Each structure stands twice: as structure tokens, then as C-alpha cells.
Q: What sequence folds into this?
């Protein structure tokens, strides 16, 4: 994998600007709501920090454009529902449910995703240790088996969607689930690690070779975040 | 040995609304009694749709994405034939979703290529489909009104999928036009006849339009093959791809 795989067009370079915006390191991204409004979380690393595994251009578009669109769509759905509610128009409120699920799910999923990535030079890559490692070994057999099962799940998604490592709250065991489009993980499953299998997550760099993206992303998985989520779940 | 000789028939059997005529059952039986589908050749060069759809997109879309659907469809159909020969019903059922996804991908892209034409060509002019345009104007008041409604449907798709203009093909159904969307690679089967299709998977536009899918939707009207659409509407082309076999 190398950044030479990236093919850019003049239009793309223009759209992204010469340098690419720099996101200052800050608090960990979170699903933050300010006065009832969802906002785009800041990343704790620069757009280019995940290269060569995920290009800076992908990261910038993915965060600043795609995620922002989900944030806007979520706020708009919430506003429509609030207005409908204030008029007692519950039919109207109910018809917004698919938009709420799609944009709300998109906001939640991407917020979790940014947090479970980190530069390979910092916390990204490698393997989990401690209690998380024990749980993976016990529930999947080994880390390698887990990783290959997750890659198989990702490759098997027919259309847009996500694959997640989850913890079942009731049994405490780990498992893999996939979700279509932006459907969020809910119910008894707590999401620990999500991988975005939408084409926008990899197309500019990997085009149709999505298996290469699914292999490369393990170099930038932040196991510290996954372990923290595991312990809290 | 059960022969899944025709993909259309197979997929239509998944739908309770199927009404199939025999004239699209144009395929070659091999000695193995399993039809192998092949990537159709395009009627135009990869760069012929520029600047609206780039050559790089067309090359990947046809040469890689569509090819993968064909390859995986053939694999699944071969496995299905083996399972059928072994009277393995569970094995056949287990393959249905794979056949639907890849078979749908093959059908949808085959229809899509044929309903595209270079901008400015005679085929890309709405007056190449006078009968269809008259029916569109009757339903949506104007061609522009239809384009607005169709574009809104395309932009409303959540995730991967397709937008379609379809004609009601059920006997006695009136032949009315409707806009429908399908998710992922779900094809239009059953009573509806596809008139034209627009691919809304991100791979269809991302290298050129990035997250700006509204611009892709706006520009695709320049490369719609109205002649093909008009023929599918009138039934002079079946509107059903005759899958090419090898
Ligand atoms: Fe995404
Ligand atoms: Fe496609």
C-alpha cells in the first residue's frame, strides 16, 4: 500500500485546497450535542496523519463533507420533528423517522469511527492487550481469526454499510455485526470498533480494490479506544 | 438436473408479480446446462461521455465493477447447478442472495450502459423518444417537472442503489409511468418494465464529483440515451437485457 495509489484530478486538488486544512489536536471526538444541536466533532489528528493507509484527501472529504452532511441532516430532521410535535402533527413527525435514523446513524457511526482510528506512528495499529486481548482470544480463538472474520464480514457487505466489533451487554461476549447504510448499532450490542465500508471511505485511494482498504485500515486502528469502550461496556 | 438457464426468469421467480414473455429467453445452453454470462461491450468508448462522466470512472465501472458482478454471478450459478444436481435444497437456498446481488448487478449495469449515449448525439435528444416524452409530459406536466421529480428521488436514496423510470407492464395495468428506487443491486423485476436507470452507487461518480452527487445527477441528463428509453417504453426493445453469453 502506498500513497502513489492515489490518483487525483485537478478538480479534486482545487476542491481540497493546496495544503488541506489542519485540524488541531483536541479532545477526543465525541457525539456531542450543543443545546440540542449535533455538531461535527474535531479530530484528534490531522487529515494526513493516517497516510499512507488512508489518504489525507479521503479524510478531509469524509470528515468535513460527508460527516458534516449527516450532522446537518440530523439537525434538520430534529427540527422538523420538534415543529411537528409543537403542532401536534404526529403523522408528520413519524414520517421523518427514516431521515432521523439515516442522518442520526451517520453522525453516531462516524463519531465513533474517528475515535477508533489513530496514526500508525502513535496509537494506531498493532494488537490489543490486557482484558480486551483475552476476550478476543476467548471469543474468536485468536486475534488473527478475529481480524480475518471482520474482513470477511466487510467484504460481504452488499452495498453501503459498516462492520462492528460489539460487546453483548447481557452475555459479556464479543461478536461481529454488520449494518446496512447508516443503521446504528443498538439494542444489547455496544459498539467497540467500527469500520466504514461505504465506497466514499476508500474509493479515491483504492477504487474497486476494497480488500486492500480492509487490509490497510488495521494499521490505524486505535486499540486504546477499543479497550476503553470494552471496559466501560 | 434443474437448469437455471435464464437469469431473468430466476430473478422474476423471486417476485410474485412476474409476467414474463418468452422472447427475452435468449441464451445459450452449454453442455453443462449452466449459462455463463459475459460482460457486454459498450456501444461507445470510455471517454465518450466526457465531460459528464469521466473515462476513468467508465473504465473502472465497466471493466472492474460490472466484471466482478458477472464473475461472481457465474460462480454462484455454477454452485447452484451443482447443489441442484445433488438435490441439495438448503445449498440452493443459501445461494439465493448472492445470485440476486450479482445477477442484479449484471442486469442493472447492462441496462444502464445502453441507456447512456454521448452528449449531443442524436440518441441523447429527448425528441428521439417522442412517444415516451409525451407520456412523461402527461404524467409530470413537463419534461423538466419529470427531471426534477426523478432527480429528487435519486438524491433521496440512502446508501447504494438505483433510480428507475418504469412502465407498468402488467396486462391491463394501463402502462403508466412511475419513478421507483431500488437498494443496492436489487433489479426491477415482475410487472414493471425498466425504461431507464441511473446508478447511484458512489463508484458511479465519486472520482469526478466526490461528495457532490447533486452535480452528477444534474449532468447525467446530458448523456441519457432517449432513443433506447423510447424503445423500451414502446416495447420495441424489450427493456430487458438479453444477457450476453460466452
Ligand atoms: Fe463514511
Ligand atoms: Fe455501478
A:
Amino acid at each position: 500500500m502506498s500513497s502513489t495509489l492515489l490518483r487525483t484530478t485537478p478538480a479534486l486538488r482545487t476542491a481540497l485546497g493546496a495544503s488541506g486544512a489542519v485540524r488541531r489536536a483536541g479532545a477526543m471526538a465525541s457525539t456531542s450535542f450543543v443545546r440540542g444541536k449535533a455538531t461535527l466533532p474535531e479530530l484528534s489528528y490531522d487529515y494526513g496523519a493516517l497516510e499512507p493507509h488512508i489518504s489525507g484527501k479521503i479524510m478531509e472529504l469524509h470528515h468535513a463533507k460527508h460527516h458534516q452532511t449527516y450532522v446537518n441532516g440530523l439537525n434538520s430532521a430534529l427540527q422538523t420533528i420538534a415543529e411537528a410535535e409543537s403542532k401536534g402533527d404526529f403523522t408528520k413527525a413519524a414520517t421523518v423517522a427514516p431521515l432521523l435514523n439515516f442522518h442520526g446513524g451517520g453522525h453516531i457511526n462516524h463519531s465513533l469511527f474517528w475515535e477508533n482510528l489513530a496514526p500508525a506512528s502513535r496509537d494506531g495499529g498493532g494488537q490489543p492487550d490486557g482484558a480486551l486481548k483475552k476476550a478476543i482470544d476467548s471469543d474468536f480463538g485468536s486475534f488473527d481469526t478475529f481480524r480475518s472474520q471482520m474482513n470477511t464480514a466487510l467484504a460481504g457487505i452488499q452495498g453501503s454499510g459498516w462492520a462492528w466489533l460489539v460487546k453483548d451487554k447481557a452475555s459479556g461476549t464479543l461478536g461481529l455485526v454488520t449494518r446496512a447504510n447508516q443503521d446504528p448499532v443498538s439494542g444489547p450490542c455496544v459498539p467497540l470498533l467500527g469500520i466504514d465500508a461505504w465506497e466514499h471511505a476508500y474509493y479515491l485511494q483504492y477504487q474497486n480494490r476494497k480488500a486492500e482498504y480492509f487490509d490497510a485500515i488495521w494499521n490505524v486502528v486505535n486499540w486504546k479506544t477499543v479497550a476503553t469502550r470494552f471496559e466501560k461496556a | 438436473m434443474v437448469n437455471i438457464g435464464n437469469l431473468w426468469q430466476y430473478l422474476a421467480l423471486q417476485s410474485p408479480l412476474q409476467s414474463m414473455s418468452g422472447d427475452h429467453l435468449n441464451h445459450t445452453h452449454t453442455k453443462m446446462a449452466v449459462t455463463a454470462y459475459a460482460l457486454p461491450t459498450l456501444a461507445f468508448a470510455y471517454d465518450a461521455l466526457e465531460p459528464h462522466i469521466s473515462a476513468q470512472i467508465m473504465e473502472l465501472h465497466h471493466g472492474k465493477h460490472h466484471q466482478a458482478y458477472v464473475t461472481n454471478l457465474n460462480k454462484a450459478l455454477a454452485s447452484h447447478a451443482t447443489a441442484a444436481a445433488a438435490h441439495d435444497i438448503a445449498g440452493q437456498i443459501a445461494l439465493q442472495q448472492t445470485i440476486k446481488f450479482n445477477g442484479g448487478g449484471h442486469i442493472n449495469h447492462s441496462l444502464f450502459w445502453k441507456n447512456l449515449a454521448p452528449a449531443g448525439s442524436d440518441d441523447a435528444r429527448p425528441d428521439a423518444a417522442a412517444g415516451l416524452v409525451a407520456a412523461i409530459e402527461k404524467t409530470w406536466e413537463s419534461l423538466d417537472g419529470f427531471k426534477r421529480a426523478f432527480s429528487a428521488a435519486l438524491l433521496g436514496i440512502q446508501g447504494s442503489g438505483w433510480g428507475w423510470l418504469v412502465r407498468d407492464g402488467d396486462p391491463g395495468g394501463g402502462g403508466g409511468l412511475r419513478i421507483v428506487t431500488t437498494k443496492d443491486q436489487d433489479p426491477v423485476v415482475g410487472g414493471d418494465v425498466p425504461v431507464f436507470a441511473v446508478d447511484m452507487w458512489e463508484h458511479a461518480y465519486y472520482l469526478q464529483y466526490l461528495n457532490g452527487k447533486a452535480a452528477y445527477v444534474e449532468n447525467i441528463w446530458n448523456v441519457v440515451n432517449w432513443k433506447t428509453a423510447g424503445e423500451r417504453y414502446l416495447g420495441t426493445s424489450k427493456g430487458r437485457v438479453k444477457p450476453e453469453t460466452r
Q: What stands out?
A: Chain A has nine helices and five strands. Chain A touches chain B at residues 7, 9, 11-12, 15, 61, 65-66, 69, 98, 102, 158-161, 180-182, 198-200, 203-204, 207-208 (CB under 8 Å).
